[in-house]
Each structure stands twice: as C-alpha cells, then as structure tokens.
Amino acid sequence: MKCQKCQKQATFHITDLTGDELLALHLCPDCAKQYLKTDETPSEGPMTNALQKQLKPLEQAAEDLRELDSKVCPICGISFFEFRQAGRLGCPHDYVFFQAELEPLLINVHGQNHHVGKQPKRGVRDTESQTELIRLRREMKEVVEQEDYERATEIRDQIRSIEEGQQSG
Amino acid sequence: MTRFEVSRKVSKVVDGNLEADIVIGSRIRLARNIAGLPFVDHATSDQTAHIEKVIMHEAESLSDPTIVFYDLAGLEELERQFVLDLERVSRAVLRKDQDLSSQPKASLLSEPVVSELSVQVNEEDHLRFSVTRNDCDLLSAWELLDRTDDRISQNIDFAFDSQRGFLTACPANLGTGLKASVMVHLPALAQTRQTEKVFRTLHKHGINVRGLFNDEASGNFFRVSNQLTLGLTESDLITKVLDAIPVINRFECKAREFVLDNNRDALRRDVQVAYENLGRVDVDQVREIEWANTLRELSLVRLGVALEMLDMSKASQIQSMFESVQLKKRLDSAIADENYQLAAELRDRIREIGEGGQS
After folding, report:
1. What residues contact A74, with CB distance under 8 A and at least 6 apart?
2. Gap from A76 CA to chain B (nearest CA, Å)
3. Which of A23, B3, B107, B281 has its CA 20 to 30 A from that of A104?
4. Mean pLDDT of all residues in B289-308
5. What are residue B179's phi and psi, to 5 degrees?
6. Could you give the count of Cα atoms lying within 13 Å of B294 in the half-sphere of its Cβ?
C-alpha cells in the first residue's frame, strides 16, 4: 500500500478521531512522523489524550526504523539504508548481519527462507574465515592509505595464512 | 515430472501446428559470487580485476568451444540486453526459411546454434553465466550449465550458506541464483489487449512476464521467467516455467483465431506492408533504423509466416539484412573499444553478406 501523502510504502496505519468521524490514515514513516508532530501540540479532552497514547508507540517505531537504517555491517561497511536504496547488499556477510531485517523480505519475495537446491561440489567452506578475509582486505586498504605499512605487512600475512589454509583444506 | 515428459510436452508446443509457434528461444542463467570478497558494487578496482582474472582463467580452462565471451563492459545495461536479445529475435524470426536449401545466402546464418554458453563477469554479481538455446529445451540447457558450474567450482569457492544457498548481491536471486526464461512471441494476445490479464494470472503462480526490451512497443516479444529463486530445486523452478508455456500458447492460439475471424484482411495488409518495409532497409544506413518500428514489423512478418500469409521464398533477404545490422552494431563497439582485429573480422563478414545479396 502506498502512503497517502507521498509515493513511498505505507507502514503506519493510523486510526484518527476527528470529531465524530473515524479517519483511517496510511502513511510512510516520514509522513507519519510529520503527522505525529503536528498532533503533539497539547490540547484538552480525553479524546486527544487517548490519541496521543495510541500514537506514542508509533513514534517509537519510526525511531526504530531510523536506527535500523543506520546499522552498518562491520565487514563491508554498508548500512541497511544503503541496501534499501540500492537493493543490493555489500558482501556475503550481510546475510548474517542483517538476518533479522532481511527475513521478512525473503519470505515476501520467495515465500520461503530455506535453500533446497544444489550445493557446491567441494562442500561448504568455513564462512567465518571467508568473512574475516573480506574484513582484512578492507582494513589493509585503509592502512595502506594511511601509509602504515607495518600494519599492512601483518594483515598481508594474516590474509596469506587464511588463503593457504583454504587451499590445503 | 521426468525430463522425458517435460521435453515431450514442450516439443508438442513447438512442433505442433503453425499457429503454435510462439517460442523464440530460452535461457538459463546462474548467479555466483566468489567467497571472501565483497559484492561487485562494493569491491575495489583491484578486487574486480582479481575476480575477472580468476574467473576467466577457470572459464578458459574449460576449453569448451561453445563458450562465447561477451565483452559488454562498455555498453549500457539496456543496450547490452538489447544486443543479446535482438540477435536472438532476428535469428528466430525467419528460422523456418532455413529449411529451404535453395537459399545459399542464408548459409552464414543457418549454422545450427543450438546452445551457447556465455559468461559475464562483474555485473551485478561476480559471475553470471548462462546457456541460451534456440528452442525451449531448458532441461538440456540446465544439464550443460550444471556441469559447467561444477567444473568452475572445482577451483573457486563460491559464497554459499547451507540455509540460504548461493549468496547473491540482490536477495531476489538468493538460493539457486537461477533464472530460467523462455522468449515468446505473442502478437495476437497483444493486439487483442489481453496480455496484462494473462500475465497477472501467471504472476500469482510465481511466473514473471516482461516485455523483451522493457518497452511496450517492443514488437510483442516477451520473456517468461521464474519469479523466485529460493526454496525450490533448480529443476522444479525450470519445470514451473516450462509448465506456463502451453498455457500461454493456448491463449495466443485463441487470440489468433479471433484476429483471423474478425480482422483477416487488415492483418494481411499489415503483414505485407511490414514485409515490404523490411525489405527496403538499407544495411548501410543501419544507424538510422528505428528499432521499435522494426521490431513491430518483424513481429508482423513472423506472424504472417506462421499464418501462411507470406511467401517465404524471398524472406532470407531480410534475414541477411538483420545479420548485417547486428554485425554493424558490433563493429561500432569494436571500433569504440579500439579492438581493430575484431573490427577487421566483422568488416569482412559484412562485406561477404553484402556481396551475397547482390549476386
């Protein structure tokens, strides 16, 4: 469902009471936030108080979403917001790091969340060391930029030892 | 369903009466990423260069003569798809004509391209490879692709998780990373404005149908594919797509009958005009061809051939013309890439066709 005030996805479904009329609102997080703000001005009457009680958790939810968007994968450095904008993840570890956030999306797209197709012939590799490789390579780039070649040497050797371990394994 | 049953079912669609001829070709692609590296969008240029080196090394060691490497890096996404698909369409449009052995000019085109393996590196995923066929035997295509995948993965670790399957840049490809598609030609459904209704119904069953060139005026060519990639085996996903083809075919046949009953003369006229227009296209002016219009005309010619409204004996001329158009397009990009060796080859082939057409 689309937000009634803009074209974004509506995730807030608010039932508002104006006078005797029931008003159903479907809003995106941004517009919901805006809507809540304008209603925060104190006024009298039990109706308004009840309304504010109802709206409080929604404001909380908008807060949660912003927090979720700013979550950043420590391995590749992509934020969940960046993923939502581009529709593409930064590295394989994102499937682990953003697991809770991606779960509903996977169910929505595939109706399933479990792979039943083919597996790599060589068997499944140690994902942890693969993830470590991505992190180390990123760190190496950073320390080289800072001209910290001593640290770069250490990282290079770490990378090599992981790679060698994989080849013999 | 066994493979035999599926093949028989589909061959019925393809080899049935002329009205049933809706299939242009098919393709399966697999998306894979190398473990231990970020996805393409977040990789450094050193990393993408490394990925290219590793994959090319493996792919070349397959020493498979059917592998075609498309060097498409310089082309826009849409144009890239366009080059690949348009080539398929123009080859398929007049395929029937190839049976006429009295047409030596078509010899260059009548090489029996049954299936082609192509490899694309550093697109959305590190590796995307696909098998394209000019029929809809997707299960044979899968056999070849499966085997190739096994061979490539002997030396490369792909990003894989036992619960999530093969890990892809976009979650929409997660799991199998497999997209099976059949290219179909549905002129009568489009003319009677029923495509949307049919496609919506298919969508509910996990089948996605899009215009071939993401464009409404794309000459009534469509791509039918699996919507999801996770939670089903590769062969189940493929079977799902294959099962949709006879259904679509029935709708198209009905629509063709309707058009013939109500609009036969107008259609015959349109087919004739389209045929004459295509015959007038000058290969030397290919850059000025209006593609949307040309595809519409190709669509009409194909329909005309299927409904036996068109004399096929002269049609090979159009086919040669289209081959030249493809080659010229490639020549342009070869020159842009400063790949003059390829440019020279293409020039010779274009001349060869030109001389064939004049003699």
Report:
1. A97, A135
2. 7
3. A23
4. 76
5. -125, 115
6. 20
Listed in sequence order, the DSSP H helices in B182-233 are: 187-191, 195-204
Query: Of the candidates A76, A105, A117, which has its C-beta nearest B165's C-beta?
Result: A117
Angstrom distance (rounded) from CA B242 to CA B10: 7
Q: What are phi and psi of A77, to 5 degrees?
A: 85, 10
Task: Give the pairing of strands B115-121 and B127-133.
Answer: antiparallel
Binary contact (A117, B158; C-beta < 8 A): no
Q: Per DSSP, what are the bridge partners of residue B358?
A: none
Chains A and B form CB pairs within 8 A to the count of 127
pLDDT value, residue A128 = 77
Which of B44, B170, B228 is the closest to A88 by Cβ?
B170
Of residues B204, B195, B294, the one with CA closest to residue B252 = B195
Q: A110 touching B, CB under 8 A?
A: yes
Per-residue pLDDT tens digits for A81-130? 999 888 899 999 999 999 988 998 898 889 888 999 998 877 666 677 88
Does A114 sit within 8 Å of B176, measured CB to CB? no
- ipTM for the predicted complex comes to 0.70
**One-letter amino acid for residue B356 of the chain:** G
In the block, tokens 């010899």 appear at B107
Q: Which two tokens stand for residue B289?
A: 């061809």
For the cut 50, the answer to whether the pLDDT of residue B16 exceeds it is no
Choose among A148, B339, B289, B354: nearest CA to B331.
Answer: B339
pLDDT, tens only, B142-192: 998 998 898 888 888 899 988 899 999 999 999 999 999 998 889 999 989
DSSP string, A57-68: HHHHHHHHHHHH
Query: Do the Cβ atoms of B176 and A118 come within 8 Å?
Result: yes
- Does pTM surpass 0.95? no
- CA dist., res. A131 & res. A128, Å (int): 5
Q: How far is B180 from chain A (nearest CA, A)?
A: 14
Nearest Cβ partner for A90 among B42, B154, B157: B42
- Residue A101: its chain B contacts at CB < 8 A? none
Q: Does A29 touch chain B (CB under 8 A)?
A: no
